[in-house]
Automatic annotation (TrEMBL):
This is Sulfotransferase. Keywords: Transferase. It comes from the Eukaryota. PANTHER family: SULFOTRANSFERASE SULT (PTHR11783). Belongs to the sulfotransferase 1 family. The keyword Transferase applies.
Length: 158
């Protein structure tokens, strides 16, 4: 989120964004509400909502998405994994050159986004936070997550 947000505000400090996230006052709203909404929907309707953590998807992309035996035998699962892979999506021409243009504006008409499509792709690796956050920042985030997620049955660690 920090790397993405810095596309608009290059001076945005990680500590400031972390505090805003922990307080639930990010531009996109409280991340906890967003995550728990999908978590709860996946528990209520697992046949309709697939909830995966990024680390789970990286570990076993084929095993985490349901395919029929016939689809797996025909190689469909591997084709989908290849086509949806981070490297493939990042390298698509539209994601290298295009902008997120044409979004509807609440005021009517079309607005131009501050983001080019390449903003949505960075490294595609889990765990990079350790290269940017101090141990104190990690503890602050852990405490906020514990408080906000308590009783839900959800944790980011799986």
């Amino acid at each position: 989120m920090w790397h993405f947000s810095r596309r608009i505000r290059q001076d945005l400090a990680l500590f400031d964004l972390l505090e805003a996230a922990c307080e639930g006052s990010c531009l996109s709203g409280p991340i906890w509400d967003h995550v728990l909404g999908y978590w709860n929907a996946s528990k209520a309707s697992p046949e309709r909502v697939l909830f995966l953590r990024y680390e789970e998807m990286l570990r076993d992309p084929v095993g985490n998405v349901p395919f029929s035996p016939a689809e797996e035998e025909a190689g469909v699962a591997m084709d989908v994994v290849r086509l949806c892979s981070f490297d493939n999506l990042k390298d698509l021409k539209v994601n290298k050159e295009a902008s997120d243009l044409g979004s509807s504006s609440p005021l009517g008409g079309v607005r131009e986004s501050a983001f080019v499509n390449s903003s949505y792709f960075r490294r595609g690796q889990a765990g990079d936070w350790v290269n940017h956050m101090t141990p104190e920042m990690a503890q602050r985030l852990d405490a906020a997550m514990e408080e906000r997620l308590r009783g839900s049955g959800f944790s980011f660690s799986g």
